[in-house]
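Re-run with default settings, no changes from the original entry. Doing this only to confirm the output is reproducible before filing.
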Amino acid sequence: MKIQTAEGFTFSVTEVKPCLADEARVRIIAEADVDLTPILEILFLYFRNANYSSGLACVTTKKAGQTVTVFGSGRVTMTFLLSEQEARDKLVELAHIFSRAFDYLEKNEPVDSSLVREKESLSALETHKILPQTDCGDCEESGCFAFATLLVNGERDVDDCGPLKLRENIGLRKALIKLIQPITLDNAREDRSDLAKFLGLKHT
């Protein structure tokens, strides 16, 4: 199965199997036709819930029970998907993020390695200091420190904390997002008609 995206990427889905955790869901392996190594650190700093392995050359992000791993080689793995259609939708979404990341790279040069080190060394204690510290249980964890630990491990998201959505905690929410998402891709150009040429993509 091949998926051609509007940004010029082509994904070849090489494997679709039942998910190990739930056979009603699927996991996939896909191959993008571009070297993603130059944007791995950008993706790591952009995804709120992410882990980065320079040795394996990959970034893993988690959300709503799903795990997505992006390799520099172009390989993408996804788990806990509802269907092959959701896999298609997720790959199209990823292509859009890849496009913006390459655009960010073109305009800003490689990211500051100190930002990568800071996010890699981010601790639950540091994160906990920014949380409202109400221990309200709204996130369904035992307390704010437990939530902070899961947040750092990429297993929970900032938006899972109810008190952070309150007006009086807007400053805390912004500070926490800045801590776990040091860069944004919001200013990347949406229309890149020359993207395929810029990336040297193969056309099929």
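The longest helix spans residues 84-108. The chain has two domains: 2-112, 122-180.
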